[in-house]
Amino acid sequence: MREDYISEENTPFLNSCRKDGLHYKRVIPSFGYCERTEILTGLKPNESGYFTAIGYDPVGSPYRKLPYLKYLSFLELNLIKARRFIGNRLYNYVYKYFRGMCSRLIRKYPNSGFRDYKIPISLLSEFNLTEDRVDHRDSSAFSKPSILKLLEDNNKSYFYDSFTALNMEPNGTDDNRLAMSLERATTTRDNLHLIYISILDTIGHKFGPDSDEMNEALQNIDKKLCNYVTSFNRIVPDATYIFLGDHGMEPVKQRFDAESELMNLVESSKLKLKEDFIYFLDSTMMRVWFKSRKAEENLLNRLTSSEIFLKFGIFVDENLANRYQIPWKDRRYGDLIWQAKLGVLIYPDFFHKGRDPHKGMHGYDVSSLASQGTCIIAGNNVKQSTKHSIPLCGVFGLLKTELNL
């Protein structure tokens, strides 16, 4: 939810909440993909240690003991080697069905770990979840007490089942999660309900953040939120509501096949995947780990001087890491990090492949207004005020205040 999405035309309910309540026009997240940690703890990535959703962890990876993984990895690595001989078109056709078969086998194995997404089979055992590795309700999830832990310490309760995390069981649609909250409220008086609303993120990715489909989605979710608040107020008349857009979204202007460009450099350097290096592709970020001196000496220099990578993005150095609050020298996030420029989409990546690339994306430099979110606090006891901005980690303080912690 961006600030410019709120209007009398598309979101009359949220617009009235904005006029009558406390409105932070801009919510500025930290760079990366661990927004929930910021909300729940008030910590930035270099303080919490959580930066991207998936990180390098060969010792803790839940896939390290998965049966038959080494055989699937062997087949995949040889299929990749055959790419230069069979051509990209046939390779993509064969690999699509091979990957689908692998995913079906993995899902049949209990406790296989996080979803395999589109991560190469041969690399699954190298990675693990970061902020979602431990359930957020666990006291050991973060390096400082979260808002959930503070509630428990003060004998207060919360409802979490309508929230989201990569290690949670699926809990349905936005309608399902809103209904779960209402049903809970009829039986239990909790101090905090956390509810995840996904539709705007989904529509923004698929159709673009400034599309007609986004306008329609805004109108629909505004009506649903209005109905939810009306129903919840019948149960808890003195409730306060925080509507938080934890980030915005940029329109995708250009796609960049970082994987193919990386593999071109790898082949000319005669390096082997897993033996010499591994890599991870987020939608706006490429991370590389060097496993041999040969890779570090050859691939590092070739990547950082590559004209094509410098055209579409920038390599993160210590100064940039400090500016973005990135955990520096934390090997979970790569020996080398390349960040895409605004509006550049890495495609394919380890989450998305196929013929339907995203038209909207977040995870860019958050100084761009379109990448920023917004926040409204509404309720009978909220004084009207408009403020310019708040860092996403500052929402933790708002929660503490509202919950008297």
Keywords:
16 strands, 4-stranded mixed sheet, 4-stranded antiparallel sheet, 405 residues, alpha+beta, globular, Alkaline Phosphatase, subunit A, 15 helices
* CATH level 4 superfamily of the domain at 3-50 and 131-251 and 365-402: Alkaline Phosphatase, subunit A
**Low-pLDDT segments:** none
Q: Tell the overall outline.
A: globular
- Name the beta content range: 15-25%
Q: Write down the overall mean pLDDT.
A: 93
Class by helix and strand content? Answer: alpha+beta
Q: What would CATH call the class of the domain at 3-50 and 131-251 and 365-402?
A: Alpha Beta
- Biggest sheet descriptor: 4 strands, mixed
Strand order, largest beta sheet: 6-15-1-16
Counting DSSP H or I runs of 4 or more residues, the number of helices is 15
The total strand number stands at 16
First-to-last CA distance:
27 Å
In CATH, the architecture of the domain at 3-50 and 131-251 and 365-402 is 3-Layer(aba) Sandwich
- CATH fold group of the domain at 3-50 and 131-251 and 365-402: Alkaline Phosphatase, subunit A
Give the fraction of residues assigned to helices: 25-40%
Summarize the entry for a quick read.
With 405 residues, this protein is of the alpha+beta class.
Description:
The protein has 405 residues and is an alpha+beta fold. Among the domains are: 3-50 and 131-251 and 365-402, 3-Layer(aba) Sandwich (Alkaline Phosphatase, subunit A); 55-128, no CATH class. The protein is 39% helix and 16% strand. It has helices at 12-20, 35-41, 45-48, 69-81, 83-86, 88-108, 147-153, 174-187, 199-207, 212-235, 258-269, 293-304, 307-312, 318-324, 395-402; strands at 22-28, 54-56, 127-129, 158-159, 192-193, 240-245, 250-251, 254-256, 277-281, 285-290, 313-315, 336-340, 344-346, 360-361, 373-379, 385-391. It has a four-stranded mixed sheet with strand order 6-15-1-16, covered by helices on one side. β9 (277-281) and β10 form a beta hairpin. α4 packs antiparallel against α6 (88-108), α8 (174-187) packs parallel to α10 (212-235) and α9 packs antiparallel against α10 (212-235). It is globular, with a radius of gyration of 22 Å. The two termini are 27 Å apart.
